[in-house]
Specification:
It is a single chain. The protein has about 220 residues and is mainly alpha-helical. The protein has one domain: Glycerol uptake facilitator protein (Up-down Bundle). About 60% of the residues lie in helices and about 5% in strands. The chain has six helices and two strands; from the N terminus they run ααααβααβ. It has a two-stranded antiparallel ribbon. The radius of gyration is 18 Å and the shape is globular. It starts with 16 loop residues before the first helix and ends in a 21-residue tail after the last strand. Belongs to the MIP/aquaporin (TC 1.A.8) family. TIP (TC 1.A.8.10) subfamily. GO terms for molecular function: water channel activity. It is a multi-pass membrane protein.
Length: about 220
Amino acid sequence: MPTRRYEVGRADEATHPDSMRATLAEFLATIIFVFAGEGSILALGKMYKDTSTTPARLVMVALAHGLALFAAVASSINVSGGHVNPAVTFAALLGGRISVVRAVYYWLAQLLGAIVACLLLRLTAGMRPAGFTVASGVGEFRCMILEIVLTFGLVYTVYGTAVDPKRGSMGTIAPLAIGLIVAANILSGLAGVVYEYMIIPGVEPPHPTHHQPLAPEDY
């Protein structure tokens, strides 16, 4: 079986219209995903005043992220491959599926897309978007192992449904499977009390208790 050839990229690839379209698709898809996913956390913070984590809220956050990623991947998969994630782009680069130039373009588009989505949320919701931090009493090593497992599950799913040339015609199964694995990863990470909602760096919050993440408006 011939191996994939790693490429830096042709000289004209940096300005080729296909590269520009693919980069724009990654940028817009990332905005869609981050705006809807992070917006669900902010919305829950406005709807409920108590900060306790409940199964219903975990499901709502996971569902919002899964559906948003399904839409983001479905809308960009035929243009850019629907990566919407730097880890997926890195895996595609290691697998020889994209060039270094295209990978750098994708990474910049994904990072800028996430920043723009957070700025839009700040503008529309009037709150700083929340993130995640390690829950109290949980070691960093345990979280590192979890991140490795969750990221492997995502990348393996993407490769099996959207990247592998032997997959055949998958239709909408690929975006759906990718959205579902992300939703499942969120449930396993939060329900396992490994992560809590996190403050934005530089903002001093009240101190959360174990398994009681702060509401986004408290940041």
